[in-house]
Amino acid sequence: MVDHEALVGMLGRLRLTAIRDQLDGLLDEAARRELTLREALAFLCEREIARRDQRRVEMAVRIAHFPFARDLRGFDFAAQPSLDPGQVRELATARFVADGEAVLLPGPPGVGEMDLLPESGGVRSERHAAAGMTIASMSALASAGVR
């Protein structure tokens, strides 16, 4: 039988830090759910991948040096009644980036299109970061009068 410390050491050596750091809780949850060995292994891998994805996003946000972080919950749609909240929330999913589509935010400078950029400051993936860069680029072009 492998003791706890040896298992923690092996997980660390394999750089499976999420599993290592939450080992007891994860094993207890797998046992409570009565997972088969294969299901338990998949469960542990899912947790490790989720942690790595989360860290990757956190690093991308730090590297981006956003001046502040906001999300759409704090956006004042009443201040810009011409915006469709549903459409803005759909854009926030950044599905258009994955689909290879372009999004133009037309309008004169100062109408709030750049206010939407920090909304993607809660960047959840590289796709959302790309969406933020796309919005920033399009807003800069619009501000420069490029049509």
Structure description:
The chain has 147 residues and is mainly α. Helix content is 61%, strand content 0%. The longest helix is centred in the middle third of the chain and has 28 residues, at 37-64. Mean pLDDT is 77; it is low at 118-131.
Properties at a glance:
147 residues; mainly alpha; 8 helices; 0% strand
Please outline the helices and strands.
Elements: H1 4-13, H2 17-21, H3 23-32, H4 37-64, H5 85-92, H6 95-98, H7 113-119, H8 126-143
Helix pairs in contact: 3-4, 7-8
Q: Work out the number of β strands.
A: 0
Structural class, by secondary structure, is: mainly alpha
Distance between the termini: 69 Å
- What is the domain total for the residues? 2
Brief characterization of the structure:
61% of the residues lie in helices and 0% in strands. With 147 residues, the chain is mainly α.
